[in-house]
Q: What sequence folds into this?
């Protein structure tokens, strides 16, 4: 499930900086948390933060009561949401066939219902398998990137080359990359080390 606002309504809201002082006090008293009346809002918020409860979402608990386990997608990864592909298939069919029988309200509704009927259990199964394969590929790729070794280049040595396995990159070129923070191949992240040396993170 994605983290859209309508999927993220909390069972019990937690105090935030947008809350006023009486709201925070009400939450503390309801939660049986000790405070003193002479405390400022920031102090009350700190107490609330120290006693923060696990986040619980209404939709999650509704699904769990009916025997479903909820897995939430990481932010900004809609490509892992099967419903996105299902909606795309339905809308593509609708756009390709709308108007064949006219554009009246009843015709439009009938075409949309026909589009949704194309989203059969077999189509859903194929989409879910495609998504699972994509998640596995993404996980493996991220694992590889996390294990790329760091390399140290002495930028004062103009004669030394870095053999990346694809091309040889001169240290003079690397020094230019450090100054401009750009590279023709991959991405370099220079971290100054000892005098004249940089620690480079390189990803293709």
A:
């Amino acid at each position: 499930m994605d983290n859209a606002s309508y999927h993220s309504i909390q069972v019990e809201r937690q105090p935030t900086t947008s809350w006023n002082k009486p709201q925070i006090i009400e939450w503390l008293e309801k939660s049986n948390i000790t405070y003193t009346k002479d405390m400022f809002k920031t102090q009350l918020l700190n107490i609330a933060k120290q006693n923060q409860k696990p986040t619980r979402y209404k939709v999650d608990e509704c699904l769990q009561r009916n025997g479903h386990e909820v897995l939430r997608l990481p932010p900004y990864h809609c490509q892992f949401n099967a419903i996105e592909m299902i909606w795309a298939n339905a809308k593509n069919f609708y756009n390709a066939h709308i108007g064949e029988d006219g554009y009246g309200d009843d015709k439009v509704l009938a075409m949309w219902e026909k589009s949704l009927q194309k989203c059969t259990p077999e189509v859903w199964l194929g989409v879910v398998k495609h998504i699972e394969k994509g998640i596995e590929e993404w996980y493996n790729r991220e694992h590889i990137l996390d294990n790329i070794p760091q390399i140290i280049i002495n930028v004062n040595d103009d004669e030394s080359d870095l053999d990346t396995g694809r091309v040889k990159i001169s240290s003079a070129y690397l020094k230019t990359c450090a100054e401009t923070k750009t590279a023709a191949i991959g991405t370099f992240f220079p971290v100054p080390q000892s005098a004249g040396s940089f620690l480079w993170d390189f990803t293709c």
